């Protein structure tokens, strides 16, 4: 904001310098023997009226113009021509006074126009900054939500492994440490490598697998150039979390099918799970982020750039997320987000 104000003051300086040169050139061309002093007097009047009214408007900015403004405004206008006579080489001339009184009225209007323009620009920039901060705060809030029951159950499972001195305990602790590190530190970035996001999903799946005695219940398949893409962090985890939540208590090998495909700048992520006793449509419970919040976050991050399809086949439930134009430059996505 201070940078914008400095730019405005630079514009003021350049305009006044050019205006002074133009007035002096015009007076010297007209053959005025005292064109230097006349130019000084004319510019002094213009500066006095313009900035006198400009700062008066600044003083009343953001609040109704009361009696003080309307009493001081005529004073600035009526005394406006007086600085001219400080440099005028002839005795006081009422005709000259009236002519410069008209000049004062003109510059009262110009100062009002300049103040309104600057206020409009500054308010627009301030509004955009506040909107951007609000979007960033909302994204941070949505991103930071995680199912506390998952952490509680994972710690209980790891405690059981440690108590039994199971060989899987150290690996489970490493998965949990990697998961927490990603959530707390790495996910603060606007985007992360897609491969790192998938590592996070692998850690989550490995910790969830502690609940099941059968072979891996998640069948995760990747296709395309995963290494070349970046994605908003923690974008897929809530879809996978819902798949676990709304599946039967007992899952067989590969019952949860997770597919990720990157092709021609488009990303497709799908999760399919069998439907348990709970209704599949009930996708927002205490401790879970729910599909409505997932939709909201996608709308903030990828407006007009994604589709979220839900298919209920009776015995299976599938959620498919497609993001288009994944390789768009970051500044274009930020401009698009701010526009919306």
In short:
The protein has helices at residues 2-29, 35-59, 67-79, 82-87, 94-144, 148-163, 168-184, 194-208, 237-245, 290-301, 330-339; strands spanning 192-193, 218-223, 230-231, 256-263, 266-274, 306-312, 316-323. It is an alpha+beta fold and 340 residues long.
Please provide a written account of the structure.
The protein is α+β, with helices and mostly antiparallel strands. Helix content is 59%, strand content 12%. It contains eleven helices and seven strands. It has helices spanning 2-29, 35-59, 67-79, 82-87, 94-144, 148-163, 168-184, 194-208, 237-245, 290-301, 330-339, and strands spanning 192-193, 218-223, 230-231, 256-263, 266-274, 306-312, 316-323. A five-stranded mixed β-sheet has the order 2-4-5-7-6, with helices on one face. The protein has a two-stranded antiparallel ribbon with strand order 1-3. The longest helix has 51 residues, at 94-144. It is rod-shaped and about 105 Å long. The two termini are 22 Å apart.
